[in-house]
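Reviewer 2 asked us to include a model.

Predict the structure of this chain.
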Amino acid sequence: MLTLLPRDMAKIGYLYLRHGEWEGKRLLPPNWADVLRHKTVNMHAPEDPKQSYSNFFWIFPERHVYMATGLRGQLIVVFPDLDVVAVTTARKYVSFRALIDGVLGAVKAGTALPPNPNAADALANAIKDAAVEKPTAVGPTPEIASAISGKTYKFPDNYLGLRSFTLFLTDAHPHFAFEIYSHYPSGPSGAYEVPIGLDGLYRKSPPWLFNPNPGKVPAAKGTWLNGQTFVIDMQDIGYGEQRELFLSFSGEKLNFRFTNTDRPDLAVSVDGEQAH
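Predicted model (structure tokens):
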């Protein structure tokens, strides 16, 4: 697995655009770097029957374009005819055809555009603004918040592997703790704590031991949806995956519903009770 900044992704694309040469030095064999000349395998993709694959690249022969793909919208797209490399680092899946056609349609000249300092400054400011987290709305805190804070809820064996869950809302540093069932009958269960923002901003935590992917930083924030339901918004910064936890309290019972924002139709729900 590679964890790369967009500029580094573009360098890989540029190396292939230049047929395996970098600053006059050959780094890859020409036959390896000339992707469009490789023998390809038709992948019979329903959305694009002509789409094929060869040596780690998806190839679109009718457009004379090829790309390397990562998780969701992490793409390196090479346009040999335009002398262009395009890179995306989207959190959600990107339509290959829409991206390719968008770039092909946007290029109107065979030479570089003249310098435009005002446009360059506007773009830099827009990127800078997009990189700053904006707080989301926070709902009012119901009376139940203090009553359930610090209470541990236990769950029977379930699909999520969730053994217990505790929400700490009145602490100086709000967080939630959870315990998962061991994957091995004789092994110990795992216990974890995650800081949570209550002001509409994410709080980051160190990478969890069971998910040590480089560059993947868990972050969470929460708010009350109504008088009984607390919603935790979780994402892995640098990875793109986002989840929501809906915690619905009723007396000493807790309904815990887990959803992935990419597939809300696959939500999983389990019921637990306060431990005494």
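The CA atoms of residues 132 and 208 lie 25 Å apart. The chain has two domains: 6-112, 144-274. We have added this to the supplementary material.
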